[in-house]
Amino acid sequence: MGRILASQPSCKMPLSRRQLLRTASCGAGYVALAGLASAAPDLTPKLTRVRPRARRVIFLNMSGGPAQLDLLDYKPQVGKKPHLGSVFPFQKRGQSGLWMSDLLPNLARHADKLCVLNGMTADTSIHAQSMLQLHTGDRLRPAPSMGSWVAYGLGTENQNLPGFISFNTAKPAEYSSAHLPPVYGGTPIGVNGEDMSRATISDIESAHLDASLKRRQLDLIQRMNHSHLATRADDAQLEGVIETLELGFRMQIAAPGLLDLSSESAATQARYQVGRNFAEGTCRPSDFGRQCLLARRFCEAGVRFIELSHGSWDQHNDHRRDLSANCASTDGPIAALLDDLDERGLLEDTLVVWGGEFGRPGLSPDKDNDKTGHQHRAFTFWMAGGGVKAGHVHGATDETGSNVVEGAVHFRDLHATILHLLGLDHENLAIVSGGRRIRLTGLQGGKVVREILA
Amino acid sequence: MLARRMARLSLQLIPCSLILAVTLGTGAAVSWAGEMTPEQRTFFENKIRPALVEHCYECHSVGAKKIGGKLLLDSPAEMLGGGESGPALVPGVPDESLIIQALRYDGVEMPPDQPLPEPVVRDFETWVKLGAPDPRENSPATAAAPSAIDPAALWAWQPVENPRPPAVREEAWPRGEIDSWILARLEAEQLTPAPDADARTLVRRLSFDLTGLPPAPEQVKAVAEGQLSIPDLVDALLASPHYGERWGRHWLDVARYAESNGNDGLSRNPSFPHAWRYRDYVIASFNDDVPFDRFIREQLAGDLLPASSPSQRDRQLIATGFLAVGAKPAKAMNDNFDLDVVADQIHVVGQGLLGMTVGCARCHDHKTDPISTREYYGLAGIFKSTETLWGAAAQQKLSAPQTDLHQLKAAPPSPPRPELSTVFASYTPRRAQEKAAFPHAPDAALAMGVREAKKIADSVIHVGGETKRTGPVAPRSVLEACAVPDLTPPVFSPENSGRLELARWISDPRNPLTARVMVNRIWLHLLGRGLVPTPDDFGATGERPSHPELLDHLATRFVTEGWSVKRLIRAIVLSRTYQLASTDRMEKDEARADRLRTLFGQHLRRRLDAEALRDAVLATTGALDPQPERGSLIQQRDFLVNELPPLHQPSRHRSVYLLMLRNSMPPELTPFNLPDGTAVTGQRDESTLATQALFLLNNAFMREQAAQLASDLPGRPEVTDLTAVKARLAQAYARAFQRSPLEDEVERDVGFLKEIDLTLVSSIPSASARHARAWEIYGQALLSSNEFRYVD
Question: What is the mean pLDDT of residues A92-99?
Answer without folding.
Answer: 96
